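FAQ: What does the model actually see?

It sees only this:
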Amino acid sequence: MAQVKSSSKSDPNYKVIAENRRARFDYAIEDDVECGIMLEGSEVKSLRMGGSNIAESYAAVEDGELWLVNSYIAPYKQAKTFGHEERRRRKLLVSRKQLADMWNATQRKGMTLVPMVMYFNHRGMAKIKIGIAKGKKLHDKREDSAKRDWSRQKSRLLKDHG
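And it is asked to produce this:
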């Protein structure tokens, strides 16, 4: 669905904040959705400084709302008394149709909602890309790893002898 564009000179505000590199290794991503995030002011300031982690987090549909659970945003030191909790649940903003599709995928099809990348878009708004995924079995992970190793080996051979 939504594509995350690479940063360029035309998008001075675009910046990747956090990326879940293991998501594509651990899960077979079938679809992805761009979501807005409800943040406090100190969280936005901290994200601009680059202090976050979404590797251990997941998204869940609860009571008709989409939540980002267990994501880490570092405390903003200048906020002092008006700071934020580092691992609080954050509400994600999606359309009703997307929310219904996610609920169907998780409840009926046994899929998982995996955060893939958190970024500031070209307008400077914090967004997160959620993947609708199915967990891979161990043999699938081994197969992917073998393919990756073979392609690296092949490129080295071509580089040396080409």
